[in-house]
Fold these 4 entries.
Entry 1:
Amino acid sequence: MKKFTLALAALGLGLLLALPSFAFGPREGRGPGGAYGNPDSPMMGYGCARGLDRLNLTDEQKTRIEALELAHQKEVRPIREKMFDKSVELRRLWLEADPDRNKINAKQKEVRILRDQLEDKRTAFRLEVNKVLTAEQKEKLAAYGWGRKAGFGPRGGTRGPGGGFGPGMCY
């Protein structure tokens, strides 16, 4: 009887200690706050990650930027899908018993070409968004560090544990 009471008390204590971890509820998608895959997230919309949400945009500006963003997403989706497929193929090449250097180099080159295409599309998108903004908004945006990558340090690279998005593509 004493062992049963002790086991029941240990189980109750374990549940009591685990209870706060359930208080936050599930998070959709990846990233802080579940912004990916959650259209209702405050991180989604007309460029929260880029600082556009802090510029006091007019309704017309919001509409134009959202249209630009939607067009940009439709334009880059096939490139992202190709890049993902090529990355999977590259991973499979590396996992072979005897990896072929030439095949790996060729596949890496294909991934780099797609990454460059994405970067060109991103630059064109940002230039179009820039045309929508007033001079004052452009100054504020520059102060927020628009275009810098997330993270620490001058190049935006993250260091140490925490807040990562796990393995996979960032595009």
Note: The domain at 57-141 is CATH 1.20.120.1490 (Four Helix Bundle (Hemerythrin (Met), subunit A)).
Entry 2:
Amino acid sequence: MNNQRTALIVGASGLVGGHLLRMLLNDDAYSRVTVLVRKPLPVNHPKLTQETVDFARLSDVAGRITAQDVFCTLGTTIAKAGSQAAFRKVDYEYPLQVAEMALLRGAEQYLIVTAIGSDARSPIFYSRVKGEIEQAIEALGYKTTVVFRPSFLAGDRAESRLGETLGIAIGKFWGFAMLGPLAKYRVIDAEVVADVMIREAKRGLAGRRILESDAIQTAHDKA
């Protein structure tokens, strides 16, 4: 792959997205990084373009959604969203709209963070929506689609999520016992996820791939 790739990040203000932004700006393989944000980030860099958007009106910026590699780390919780319908907008409708618009303007790769347990047939609403967005993105026909399904994410959050805080604490305590099939449930650092997302984008391998949390960690450790 050449060293003049361009990237678009959706969710740059989040835990994984923040690491992605920092890494991509410092990566010589990328000449331009665009972020879609609700409000400007306190970051200045000659490679960075910030597009302040109302996600309910993404079509307003369709002409400016251009990049070869699209990184989507957008996500919320049902508690924060306030309802299942509002959650679905953030975790399904917005990522899909961005994917559709970027593809029309020449995007080649779509790399998205969903969650461990994602399954479009799941009786659990959260997991079902995550699985549905995976299927919807795959159906668009990108040259490359890579899905990342991390377990509980460790890192410094701008906001506290009680469920994830408890999950991380329990996961770290019992991590040594999570072997074999249970390895994918170990806590993983958000920075590790971001690192492997960029590595996968730079590989540029065509097709669809799903990396479970343990595979993400392994890819990082082997690099």
Note: The helical segments are 15-25, 78-81, 84-104, 125-139, 162-174, 190-203, 213-222.
Entry 3:
Amino acid sequence: MNRKKLCFAALLFLLLLNIVCLFYLWNYGNFNKDPRNKIGDYLVKELDLNEHQIASFELLKKDHQEQVQLIKEKNRLFHDQYFDQLKSKALDSTLLNVTLDSITYLQRQIEIVTFKHFYQLRMICDDRQKIKFDSVIQEALRMFAPQRPPKH
């Protein structure tokens, strides 16, 4: 009987420990956090944006995300078309090149839209904030860049 109580207590302790760990990860860890929000929060804090600037920035972010999403959807279709050529018995190099040019063009459009987004953000800053913007933008862009896997 004593052994059953000890096992039950240990099981209960482990269950509570798991619940606490999951709660901590969910609320305070990087679990379920969009990296784009992290960059936005970083810029708002570093630039010390006021309420009006934050509202403008939120509109800029929404517009940027919508534009990039549309471009990515088109890009996905071109990627599918490009790799569907693997199924062909004879490769059509003209179609491959046109499709690859389209993919390259769309990636360029993402870069242009992103540049304009940050340019517009800089324009809503006052002179003091523009100086700070110029010093923190590279760090923000590094945060947004895809993470490279570690070298083996």
Note: DSSP finds five helices and no strands in the chain.
Entry 4:
Amino acid sequence: MAWTEHDYPDTDALTVAVAERLRTACEAALRTDDTALIALAGGRTPFPVYRRLASANGIDWSRVVALPGDDRCVSREHPASNAAGLRAAFAAAHSLRILPLTADDGDPDASLARARAALAPLHDRMFDAVVLGMGEDAHTASLFPGADALPAAMAEDAGEDAFLIVPNPLPPEAPYPRITLGLARLLRARSRHLIVTGARKREVLRAAQTARDPQRAPISALLHATDAVVHVHWSP
């Protein structure tokens, strides 16, 4: 089994616990390295975790670099931008550096070039923590089942760290192409945290835990990866 489960009575308890794990990961990194490097999911559930983390004592935020695990190809001030959401959630961590994955105007091709250029110097640097979510279609980050670029993004020997993904079909609530970290890059981390809430998503999680089917259920590749334990945090 490549995962460890942590169940909480509600999202408040989940928020407290995951924020503490991220605080510990950052502090451990800063004891041995010049910087801590974290990749963070967007979405309603993780943002309260980040707000709590931003208010934690003892972290030298000037030495922490955060980046979205994926982002929509929109301008960086757009409400759908994960980078904008991270900036707002970490408002209390004034000196935190957030590394965007997209071009200023969100152009997809320019965003892919920008992401790959920004990630290249970090290629051999492990993330100190990765936070991921999961959709009801079993996607994680922007690794969407059915996307043309999914096989390349899921390759464990991928030479690139970022990929342009166009979900098919586009989600009606966010109909945008995406830039996402690939599976291999997400796995190069000292700790991995998957946040899942609600009964329906737990059903999807159970199916992915039962069978590895990365093209239909991309999250299953993360859960079944060799030598990569995932901490699964669930609440109703």
Note: The mean pLDDT is 96.
